[in-house]
Amino acid sequence: MVTKTVRVKTTTQQRQQIVAMATKEPTWSHAALANWATAQFKLGLPIDRKTISKTLKRANKISSISGYHLKRSRTTSTPFPEVEAALLCWIDKINASKMSLTQSMVREEASRIAQRQQIDLSSLIFFNG
User: Fold this and answer.
1) Other CB atoms within 10 Å distance of the CB of residue 95
2) 86: in domain
3) What percentage of the chain's residues is helix, strand, coil (to nearest 5)?
4) CB atoms within 10 A of CB 33
5) What is residue 111's three-state secondary structure?
6) Tens of pLDDT along 60-97?
7) Are residues 47 and 18 located together in one domain of the fold?
8) pTM to 2 decimal places
9) Count of alpha carbons within 13 Å of 2, Cβ hemisphere only?
10) Could you tell me if 108 and 66 lie in one domain?
């Protein structure tokens, strides 16, 4: 019978804590870090040592992530960070004014921002969600 691999998901913030602990305790093995992380984050299943190795291998990238991406397990990069930054500012203003926000409003504003920044509109891709 084949056993199914069970994966433990960690957030970016948890991975940053693992990197910080590895820096603080350089003598700890990856297995010790895995045991610490499992206890620290109260995970139902133990974190695999390989997960710790991959996390430490990507330490520079993980450390540079901030903001709302910290609670995510996966992060994606945007092809137009300037458009996204301007759009997030606009969304914050709309939310602060207590106006309702629709998907079509966000798409229209993103298109306007892209035009102002002279970005080809055909290269913009919108996702639902």
Assistant:
1) 11
2) yes
3) 60, 0, 40
4) 23
5) helix
6) 887 777 776 666 666 667 788 888 889 989 999 999 99
7) yes
8) 0.56
9) 2
10) no
